């Protein structure tokens, strides 16, 4: 499990380093969601947003029903947090600064950008996403020099990654009937 | 699309006061990388083919097949009008002092008749085959190289890819994006506007502006437009009804229409385009016009949405289609598209300067 931490207690953002028990607990819930999704023929990605020991957002991929290719689980979960803030009359900027994302697969480049724009401090994920990963695999959006794109965030990667990969493999054996005929990749 | 090589008439430039340039990959836009090599004059021109053959058998120069083995000497008054690449510096043991360099240090005399070669000297040769004419011209100043020219890229780099007619249409669509940006600004949003167009029917399918000042801080103009296209296809995740400028229309296509007529048949990036399909599928084959370069979230959203082409007015500080990243040419991704900048540049720059609301 890889992590980059510096133990500077003065850094407010470091207070969102959850204990290993917490990580275990929330990632178990994320994996339960992923398995449930697979059983329903959906992309097996489990994703939850935890604020102050409370789940504010749960996402599943909603690309097919919305015909909007940006409706990844993380984007859906972020919307849930925004809705919660709206209902509870809370300042979403303050809430996002203390919200951790637990997700079974590395967020894609788009989702990493969204998380960064909202100043999410920490992302815990399972397996790498070699096709689209924005937290180290294809690009490293949380760490790159992007002064106008929110704040950099930390990642804890590799949590039960083999299991997360296995779930994805099971899913991609089935075909997505909505996608256009894919072309064979070069190289 | 055929390259438009014809020069624009002077009178046409009155209506369109901007140029549009392609945003190419790093490989296409970077300076030529150079390698050091040893070259030597050919003393007797008649021995050239023998020398080339013998040198090639000892130093076949793998990986740099694009460079010409022999060049005509720059100085025409020279005693030896031809020079030949002996080997790359990396092919031989390091030679401490190049001043005392002799041909026998580079070549085994039992395999080459070295009397045909003069005193060797160091040269720089292009490490990779040039991809564009500017790279070719730069590389050729060091040593001649072969070049398989993509004429469309050459024309595009001169800002001459599109006809006056096509540019007039681009101006119309970007004007709609600028109007949307202004409408958004009037509502307290950042002044960014976008439209998504089906280039086949030339219909605007979605018009949007930045909506971050509303309920969702991720509602950048591009994200708004992508969802509006989804609405037009019977989907969509949001309602933008309270923003009168944010609109969508239902795509139409006539059965006789071939979806491959206007779309680029030659790919500027040398990469595969997603296959065109009859049923509208997300943003496949569509053009996006946006007043400024999209951020990393929006740029990747366009990859996921299979956008056809992107035209933007001006670059952004953290832009992801040319400035900080070139997501549209990113090798590992499964969809690539062409990006052009400079459309209605002046008007888009003005929007940027008075865009007050930045997070």
If you had to describe this structure to a student in words, what would you say it looks like?
Chain A: Its EC number is 3.5.4.33. Chain A: It holds the Pfam family dCMP_cyt_deam_1. Chain A: One of its GO terms (cellular component) is cytoplasm. The complex is a heterodimer of chains A (187) and B (359). Chain A is α/β, with parallel strands linked by helices. In chain A, 35% of the residues lie in helices and 16% in strands. A six-stranded mixed β-sheet of chain A has the order 1-6-5-4-2-3. The longest helix of chain A has 20 residues, at 20-39. In chain A, 46% of the residues are buried. In chain B, 24% of the residues lie in helices and 16% in strands. Chain B is of the alpha+beta class and 359 residues long. The relative contact order of chain B is 0.14. The longest helix of chain B is centred in the middle third of the chain and has 23 residues, at 164-186. Mean pLDDT of chain B is 87; it is low at 5-13, 254-267, 269-277 and 355-359. The interface between A and B is large, with 48 and 45 residues.
* Average predicted local confidence, pLDDT of chain A: 88
Q: What distance separates the N and C termini of chain A?
A: 30 Å
Widest beta sheet: strand line-up of chain A: 1-6-5-4-2-3
Structural class of chain A: alpha/beta
Low-confidence stretches of chain B: 5-13, 254-267, 269-277, 355-359
> Average pLDDT across residues of chain B?
87
Number of helices of chain A: 6
Secondary-structure element pattern of chain A, one letter each = EHEEHHHEHEEH
**Cα gyration radius of chain B (Å):** 27 Å
Percent of residues in beta strands of chain A: 15-25%
Task: Classify the secondary structure makeup of chain B into a structural class.
Answer: alpha+beta
Q: Fraction of residues of chain B in helices?
A: 10-25%
The tally of strands of chain A reads 6
**Strand ordering within the main sheet of chain B:** 1-11-10-9-6-7-8
Q: What is the helix/strand order of chain B?
A: EHEHEEHEHHHEEHEEHEEH
Distance between the termini of chain B: 40 Å
What is the global morphology of chain A?
A: globular
Biggest interface goes to: A-B, 48 and 45 residues
Query: How many H/I helical runs of chain B?
Result: 9
Which regions of chain A contain 5 or more consecutive residues with pLDDT less than 50?
4-12
Family (chain B): Belongs to the cytidine and deoxycytidylate deaminase family. ADAT3 subfamily.
GO molecular function (chain B): tRNA-specific adenosine-34 deaminase activity
Cofactor (chain B): Zn(2+)
Pfam family, one (chain B): dCMP_cyt_deam_1
């Amino acid at each position: 499990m890889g992590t980059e931490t510096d133990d500077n207690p003065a850094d407010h953002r470091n207070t969102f380093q959850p204990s290993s028990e917490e990580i275990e607990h929330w990632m178990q819930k994320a994996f339960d969601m992923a398995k449930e999704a697979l059983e329903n023929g959906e992309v097996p990605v489990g994703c939850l947003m935890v604020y102050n020991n409370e789940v504010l957002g749960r996402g599943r991929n909603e690309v097919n029903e919305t015909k909007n290719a940006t409706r990844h689980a993380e984007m859906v979960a972020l919307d849930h947090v925004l809705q919660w803030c709206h209902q509870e009359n809370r300042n979403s900027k303050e809430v996002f600064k203390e919200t951790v994302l637990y997700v079974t697969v590395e967020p894609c480049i788009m989702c990493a950008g969204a998380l960064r724009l909202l100043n999410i401090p920490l992302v815990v994920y399972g397996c790498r996403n070699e096709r689209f990963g924005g937290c180290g695999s294809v690009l490293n959006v949380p760490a790159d020099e992007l002064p106008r794109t929110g704040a950099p965030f930390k990642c804890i990667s590799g949590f039960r990654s083999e299991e997360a990969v296995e779930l994805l493999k099971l899913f991609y054996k089935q075909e997505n009937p909505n996608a256009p005929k894919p072309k064979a990749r070069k190289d | 699309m055929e390259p438009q090589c014809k020069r624009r008439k002077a009178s046409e430039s009155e209506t369109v006061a901007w140029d549009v340039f392609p945003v190419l990959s790093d490989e296409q836009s970077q300076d030529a990388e150079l390698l050091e090599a040893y070259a030597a004059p050919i003393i007797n021109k008649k021995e050239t083919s023998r020398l080339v053959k013998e040198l090639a058998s000892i130093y076949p120069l793998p990986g740099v097949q694009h460079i010409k083995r022999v060049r005509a000497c720059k100085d025409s008054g020279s005693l030896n009008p031809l020079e030949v690449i002996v080997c790359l510096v990396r092919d031989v043991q390091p030679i401490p002092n190049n001043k005392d360099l002799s041909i026998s240090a580079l070549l085994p005399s039992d395999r080459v008749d070295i009397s045909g070669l003069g005193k060797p000297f160091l040269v720089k040769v292009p490490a990779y085959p040039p991809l564009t004419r500017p790279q070719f011209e730069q590389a050729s100043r060091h040593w001649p190289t072969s070049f398989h020219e993509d004429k469309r890229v050459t024309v595009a780099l001169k800002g001459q890819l599109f006809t006056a007619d096509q540019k007039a249409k681009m101006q119309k669509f970007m004007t709609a994006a600028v109007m949307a940006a202004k409408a958004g600004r009037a509502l307290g949003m950042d002044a960014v506007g976008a439209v998504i167009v089906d280039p086949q029917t030339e219909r605007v399918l979605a018009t949007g502006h930045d909506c971050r000042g509303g309920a969702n801080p991720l509602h950048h103009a591009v994200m708004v437009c992508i969802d509006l296209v989804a609405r037009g296809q019977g989907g969509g995740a949001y309602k933008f009804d309270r923003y009168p400028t944010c609109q969508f229309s239902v795509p139409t296509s006539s059965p006789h229409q071939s979806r491959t007529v206007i779309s680029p048949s030659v790919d500027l990036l040398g990469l595969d385009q997603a296959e065109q399909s009859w049923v509208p599928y997300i943003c496949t084959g569509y053009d996006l016009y946006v007043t400024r370069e999209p951020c990393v979230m929006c740029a990747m959203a366009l990859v996921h949405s299979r956008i056809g082409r992107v035209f933007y007015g001006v670059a952004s500080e953290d832009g992801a289609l040319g400035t900080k990243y070139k997501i549209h040419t990113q090798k590992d991704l499964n969809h690539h598209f062409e990006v052009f900048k400079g459309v209605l540049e002046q008007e888009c720059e003005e929007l940027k300067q008075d865009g007050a609301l930045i997070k």
